[in-house]
Amino acid sequence: MTGQPTAFRNGPLSDLRVIEMGTLLAGPFCGQILGDMGAEVIKVEPPGQGDPMRVWGREKAHGKSLWWPVVGRNKKAVTLDMRQAEGQALLRELVAKADFLLENFRPGTMEKWGCGYEDLAKINPRLIMIRVSGFGQTGPYAKQAGFGAIGEAMGGLRYVCGDPSTPPSRMGISIGDSLAATFASVGALSALHYREKTGRGQVVDSAIYEAVLNMMESLVTEYDKTGYIRERTGAILPNVAPSNVYPTRDGQLVLIAANQDTVFGRLAEAMGQPGLAKEPKYATHTARGANQVELDELVGRWTATQTRDEVLAAMEKFGVPAGLIYRTPEMLEDPHFKARQAIVATQHPDFGELKMQNVAPKLSETPGGIRAPAPSMGEHNEEVYLGLLGMARERYDALAARKVI
Questions:
Q1: Which fold does the domain 6-215+363-401 belong to in CATH?
Q2: What pTM, to 2 d.p., does this model score?
Q3: Annotated active-site residue in 177, 224, 250, 334
């Protein structure tokens, strides 16, 4: 971008270094976010083993993970055995040159290796340690195993997901892990701002169940003041109407969200029934909520007389939020996705051209980007150990022979 400072042409965090020690998703997705925004992310993996994400997810016929290229992008990979004292010492050398250390082991693991925050802060008092775990670093559950699914259940999300006629459902993605990683990123950048003012690092403690809990809107306060417990409601939110998926004449489904007073007035006009917005049972948000089932049936009867394209055209004309429920094929063909480059084609050594979601959010002055494909295991050992740390070749070869790296 014209006028963009050289130091930030690869993203706003391009002058920062992250040592990523996490596995699976809760830690590595945080590393992906920071890497997408330009940070140098050095991923540390056990020799010969690596992050399970390298093999997780749906695979192609030749056994290569299609999830790893997304979560591993924009990272450098080194191998390091933290079970050996030499490996722990080598991590401390890396920490001395880092801004962030990111980990999502069970609490106490880093301390067992002599690499807790107090130990590492003596080496680098500016270090920001990002810790993602199921239950957080403190409390009676801290050292229990805590996968994303458990955090989703304890945080309240699982109970409200699905149809009321079925047991609680899970989301189709690992939302608990991703939310904890996203909150960890926010915490990391908040701690970075504090460090700029004070020169001191700190610990960012992101718990999966708390990340989920923080997305649960007024669920706690509703129970606290009224005793109301939210239940599963399928495609709707109770008392928010009309906002649902409606059928069309050509057998399609259109999602319409017209629950605000003025927007509902425009929907009524689009339906050719402007008087609906003045009827007492539909005139206010509260009234529409009380008559939600009846109102949804009314809207559905109208959409059923129209084709999908006719409904969408009417909603656009009258300024009513509406859309389709996309799968990947629809995303790849959508002109808005294309115009904003929401999905981009990247080059990968195993797959050639590989499409994936682009970096979000978009920054006008210092945009992030996908600069490098996911690395092979230990791909950057020499660059990091010989280059960054200035390790002598003899020491490097000796450590490799003992499988420390």
A1: Rossmann fold (3.40.50)
A2: 0.90
A3: 177
